């Protein structure tokens, strides 16, 4: 990825064009130089976008200038009085869900005279408020536009209403506060205090977080609402990335000059850094994509356009620098797609070196390449290309325009914009638009939304412990609208992609970095949430089968069959592949898991491909089409314990006990082989089913199966076998049968362990009852015979199934 820079100085002057100018921007610049442009004569202190094509800039020459990038015109909006030196500008947030025609109408301008001003789009100063003694160094609206925070040379942090009424003085610092940012929930404020960063909640008496962040005065901060990460820039010539707990994630090398500006792209994937004659584009993990040396002086302020495709910088030498992001890359199998210009993509098929050029009417904003389709959103339209045919894309108009996220599944894809979440088929048909109360789509990203053929999962921001689940085709909440709620905050979610809808699983990482798996079908009895791993930083499901991989502490782990936890948790470790991953250093991220290739981006930005064994995927395929003999043959051929362990779990999950027996034998689990053997000999299919469920630890379900089949004695017996004495007696009493059987086993149990009966209910029922083992054995024998006769057809030969 690169930045393509254009610098506009005075009218009718040669423009400084710094790096490989491309035709489009050349044209744009030429148009600009022919126009009667107004530009600044002095230091530009701040800039702010109204739309993706329109920018306002303020300067020490007291002018506020509007830049229209489509027509190339600039115009003076207003000339402020000579005593007002603008310092910071922030547009009132565009309300969510409102069409793009409605633009932000006012902005706040802070100035050196201790005031802030609310100024309309047309340049009318609606209100000027005395705010601080000394200069007001920064002013920011919160995300909802319900409050404004200002900070000043006087060291005060003040909160104002939308109309500029003082609400509170949040804090007093001994030193000037240079920069301020709202937390994603608009309930906390981050500000600078010398070398320290402070996060203070608005709520009185709430805990303050403070840490030393730099070795020099901190000049700028920014806090992204999507990834919740913090940027800081200082006079120590470094920029740093922090999480919202103040933990350091990245620190740059010292530069030659102080870092004067930092700014997150709206989607939190990139950020820009400004310094003296320096503009940098960085990935959210801190590594630098591009470094440019424009003739700007110090860049005091950077603003990203709303669609995240370009930036503007306020330059110390009176320039406004524009740059847009190009050369983004997408890869899938043998295809490489590169955004070469703002409206052009190049597709390269690495198999035959064929190159296709894709031209778009408008600027490309987002793209995604997966499942044999390239989905591109421009400022007005969505294009869908099949990798089989690059010439005839399907094109449809977008509702709002600025798509912030594209997610793909095999069947359909999802577009997220400021107003909503929209699911489309690859034929361009609108399918659904899931919603939940208080939904904020501006903060969703690939970690908080997940899509499969049948399900859309969304992690909520208002309550981070909740995951909303929707039926993809209708956009309706799953089941009876029960969402998944967990005891901790959830950081990242991912749906598996294959298999039946009823088996759909979701994996998630909680704030302790523990990895869990659970079923998305939440009706009826709540599915268990089971832990799969710890210290997991990033995860991905394979696109071809339900294999999960993740980076766990310093290891790369593949869960070849995560479902194992539902079947036989003991053998989970045997179904894993692990290798050392310390070579990936800090904060690696799994970019994709396509086929058996995992792509990891390291902290330095380089991509590493890991190939995992192809055999587990083949095993998944055999099992999904019930080719058990092929599956066994494959395991014999591969001769790996992991394969046999996966097969064992897969066979139990699919109740193929013959295969399970072979597989368990191969991994030396002799106890299990014996148990499976005993299951095979059970007299009815319900009993077999119940004991398979018990084998997987699903006692309650096993009991339900038996009771529904009228096998009350068998249901009582499984509880006896598990020493669930209360339940055994409860069932016997409820169904008025085998009370004596339960009492007899209980007595035998107590005798074996040399204990006295203390349980009240047992004491009550035991009173006056004479245990007659002969009678009980006869009754049991009868039950078994009855069961065997009932289930006609394939009749087992023995009936030694139940453990006594
Ligand atoms: C997902 O949808 C695609 C296209 O409809 C279909 O070919 C594929 O089999 C589906 N996969 C699953 C697991 O349902």
UniProtKB/TrEMBL annotation:
Top-level taxon of origin: Eukaryota
Domain spans labelled IFT80/172/WDR35 TPR: 643-789
Role this protein plays: Component of the intraflagellar transport (IFT) complex B, which is essential for the development and maintenance of motile and sensory cilia.
Start-end of each WD repeat: 129-161, 211-243
Protein's name according to its UniProt entry: Intraflagellar transport protein 80 homolog
Main location: cytoplasm
One annotated GO biological process: cilium assembly
Keywords from the named record: Cell projection, Cilium, Cytoplasm, Cytoskeleton, Membrane, Repeat, Transmembrane, Transmembrane helix, WD repeat
Subunit and partners: Component of the IFT complex B, at least composed of IFT20, IFT22, IFT25, IFT27, IFT46, IFT52, TRAF3IP1/IFT54, IFT57, IFT74, IFT80, IFT81, and IFT88. Interacts with IFT88. Interacts with IFT57 and IFT70B.
The keyword Transmembrane helix belongs to this UniProt entry's keyword annotation: yes
């Amino acid at each position: 990825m690169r930045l393509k820079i254009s610098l506009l100085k005075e009218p009718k002057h040669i423009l400084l064009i710094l790096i490989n100018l491309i035709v489009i921007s050349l044209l744009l610049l030429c148009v600009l130089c022919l126009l009667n442009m107004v530009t600044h004569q002095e230091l530009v202190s701040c800039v702010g976008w109204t739309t993706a094509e329109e920018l306002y800039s303020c300067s020490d020459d007291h002018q506020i200038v509007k830049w229209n990038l489509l027509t190339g015109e600039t115009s003076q909006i207003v000339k402020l009085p000579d005593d007002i030196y603008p310092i910071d500008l922030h547009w009132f947030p565009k309300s969510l869900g409102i069409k793009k025609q409605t633009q932000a109408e006012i902005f706040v301008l802070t100035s050196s005279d201790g005031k802030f001003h609310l100024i309309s789009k047309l340049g009318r100063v609606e209100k000027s408020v005395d705010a601080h003694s000394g200069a007001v160094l920064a002013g920011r609206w919160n995300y909802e536009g319900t409050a404004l925070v200002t900070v000043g040379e006087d060291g005060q942090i003040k909160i104002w209403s939308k109309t500029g009424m003082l609400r509170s003085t949040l804090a007093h610092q001994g030193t000037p506060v240079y920069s301020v940012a709202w937390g994603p929930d608009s309930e906390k404020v981050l500000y600078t205090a010398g070398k320290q960063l402070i996060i203070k909640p608005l709520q009185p008496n709430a805990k303050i977080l403070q840490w030393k962040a730099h070795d020099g005065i901190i000049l700028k901060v920014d806090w992204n609402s999507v990834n919740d990460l913090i940027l800081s820039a200082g006079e120590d010539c470094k920029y740093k990335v922090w999480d919202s707990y103040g933990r350091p994630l990245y620190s740059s090398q010292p530069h030659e000059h102080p870092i004067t500006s930092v700014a997150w792209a709206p989607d939190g994937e990139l950020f820009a850094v400004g310094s003296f004659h320096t503009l940098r584009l960085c990935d959210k993990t801190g590594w630098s994509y591009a470094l440019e040396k424009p003739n700007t002086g110090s860049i005091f302020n950077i603003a990203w356009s709303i669609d995240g495709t370009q930036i503007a910088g306020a330059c110390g030498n009176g320039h406004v620098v524009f740059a847009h992001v190009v050369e983004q890359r997408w890869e899938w199998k043998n295809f490489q797609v590169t955004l070469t210009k703002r409206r052009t993509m190049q597709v390269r098929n690495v198999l035959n070196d064929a190159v296709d050029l894709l031209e778009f009417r408008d600027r490309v904003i987002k793209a995604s390449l997966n499942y044999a389709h390239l989905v591109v959103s421009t400022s007005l339209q969505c294009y869908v290309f099949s990798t089989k045919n690059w010439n005839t894309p399907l094109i449809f108009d977008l509702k709002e325009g600025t798509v912030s996220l594209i997610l793909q599944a095999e069947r359909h894809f999802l577009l997220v914009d400021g107003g909503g979440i929209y699911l489309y088929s690859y034929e361009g048909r609108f399918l659904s638009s899931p919603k939940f109360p208080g939904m904020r789509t501006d903060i969703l990203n690939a970690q908080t939304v997940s899509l499969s053929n049948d399900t859309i999962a969304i992690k909520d921001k208002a309550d981070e412990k909740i995951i909303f689940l929707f039926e993809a085709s209708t956009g309706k909440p799953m089941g009876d609208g029960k969402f998944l709620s967990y005891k901790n905050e959830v950081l990242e979610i991912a749906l598996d992609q294959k298999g039946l809808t009823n088996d759909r699983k979701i994996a998630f990482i909680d704030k302790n970095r523990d990895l869990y798996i659970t079923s998305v079908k939440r009706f009826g009895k709540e599915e268990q949430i089971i832990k799969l791993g710890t210290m997991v930083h990033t995860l991905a499901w394979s696109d071809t089968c339900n294999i999960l991989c993740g980076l766990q502490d310093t290891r790369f782990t593949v869960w070849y069959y995560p479902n194992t936890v539902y079947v036989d948790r003991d053998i989970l470790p045997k179904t894993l592949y692990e290798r050392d991953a310390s070579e990936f250093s800090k904060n690696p991220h799994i970019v994709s898991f396509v086929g058996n290739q995992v792509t990891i981006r390291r902290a330095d930005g380089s991509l590493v491909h890991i190939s995992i064994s192809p055999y587990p995927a083949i095993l998944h395929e055999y099992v999904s089409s019930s080719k058990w003999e092929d599956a066994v043959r494959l395991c014999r051929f591969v001769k790996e314990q992991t394969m046999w362990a996966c097969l064992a779990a897969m066979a139990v999950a699919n109740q193929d006990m013959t295969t399970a027996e072979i597989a368990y034998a191969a991994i030396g689990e002799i106890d299990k082989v014996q148990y499976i053997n005993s299951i095979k000999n059970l007299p009815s299919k319900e009993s077999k089913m119940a004991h398979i469920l018990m084998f997987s630890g699903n006692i309650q379900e096993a009991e339900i199966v038996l009771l529904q089949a009228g096998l009350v004695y068998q249901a009582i017996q499984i509880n006896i076998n598990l020493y669930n004495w209360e339940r055994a007696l409860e069932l016997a009493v409820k169904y008025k049968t085998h009370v004596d059987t339960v009492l007899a086993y209980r007595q035998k149990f107590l005798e074996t362990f040399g204990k006295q009966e203390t349980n009240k209910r047992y004491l009550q029922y035991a009173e006056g009852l004479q245990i007659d083992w002969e009678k009980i054995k006869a009754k049991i024998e009868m039950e078994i015979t009855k069961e065997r006769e009932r289930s006609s057809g394939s009749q087992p030969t023995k009936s030694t199934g139940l453990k006594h």
